[in-house]
Design brief:
The structure is a single chain. This protein is of the alpha+beta class. The protein has twelve helices and six strands. Helix 3 (36-45) packs antiparallel against helix 4 (50-77), helix 4 runs antiparallel to helix 5 (83-91) and helix 5 runs parallel beside helix 11.
Length: 278
């Protein structure tokens, strides 16, 4: 369909005939993403018509949500290989214009600063201390304890901008940089807390990024599990998958929207989680 034809369709969204308006909406949904810029333009041109603006907003959100679903399913088919891509897809739920390149550049900036002082022959604890210095001292990342359940904590672009996040978002950024430095660092899915593990054939220890990169041991995890009154599981000590991480981020988002509350967004994020786990 030509752009002029799409524009003509868009102008009929406000038609007095309900059947015509519904037919137009259906056709616009079938066109998909390419119609979004025209809808945004129409929204700006109709400031005097809040009802039409609301209809346009809802349609744009629906189209953007469908694009997100397509990306998420493609990520699933590709085997969950790129964690940053998975985090980017989640962030586009609230920031649909965000690019993957922007997140990648933010990772690169921190990586290059850490790389300047990093050496492969250093003891792993010293490598962690170097990364901690760059991450917490130079870039000023910190735990968002004041707004722990804010949806922004699950949006990586917001974590980069505010320099604050929850355990899993801070761990994801830290881990992506560590992997660029060839550190064998992975996520660990603890109950009510997300941490990292440095695991090589010679040594394994843990890193609490939410507590400024504190290094701790398997014994500390065991004590934590006892304090939580839970039965010990091997998964509490070993690396988790990228899929585990993205699913946990989505569960955090569900809790965030439940606390606002925003039932519609809860339903939409629950649907995303179901698409990944079914």
């Amino acid at each position: 369909m030509k752009e002029s034809e799409i524009k003509a369709l868009v102008t009929l969204l406000d038609d007095d005939d309900i059947e015509v308006a519904q037919h137009v909406e259906k056709q616009l949904r079938n066109i998909g993403g390419p119609v979004i810029p025209l809808l945004e333009q129409l929204w700006q041109e109709n400031e005097w018509n809040p009802l039409l603006q609301k209809k346009i907003e809802d349609l744009i959100h629906e189209l953007q949500y469908n694009i997100l679903i397509e990306r998420l399913l493609d990520w699933k088919k590709e085997g969950y290989e790129d964690l940053l891509e998975g985090m980017w897809i989640i962030a586009t739920y609230q920031y649909p214009d965000l690019t993957l390149d922007k997140l990648q550049q933010s990772i690169n900036d921190i990586y290059f600063d850490a790389w300047l002082d990093f050496r492969d022959d250093l003891h792993p604890h010293d490598q962690v201390r170097i990364l901690n210095q760059v991450f917490f001292e130079k870039y000023k990342f910190s735990s968002n304890t004041k707004n722990f359940h804010s949806p922004a904590n699950s949006m990586l672009n917001q974590v980069f901008e505010q320099k604050k996040g929850n355990p899993i978002s801070l761990c994801v950024i830290y881990m992506l940089i560590a992997k660029r430095l060839h550190m064998p660092v992975s996520g660990v899915n603890l109950p009510s807390l997300f941490v990292l593990t440095y695991k090589s054939p010679q040594i394994q220890f843990y890193i609490n990024v939410f507590n400024r990169g504190l290094i701790f041991t398997k014994v500390d995890i065991s004590n934590y599990i006892k304090q939580m009154h839970l039965s010990s599981q091997e998964s509490f000590y070993q690396p988790c998958t990228n899929l585990d991480i993205i699913c946990r981020v989505l569960r955090n988002l569900i809790v965030s929207f439940e606390k606002i509350p925003d039932i519609e967004r809860v339903r939409e994020v629950e649907n995303l989680l179901k698409l990944l786990t079914e």
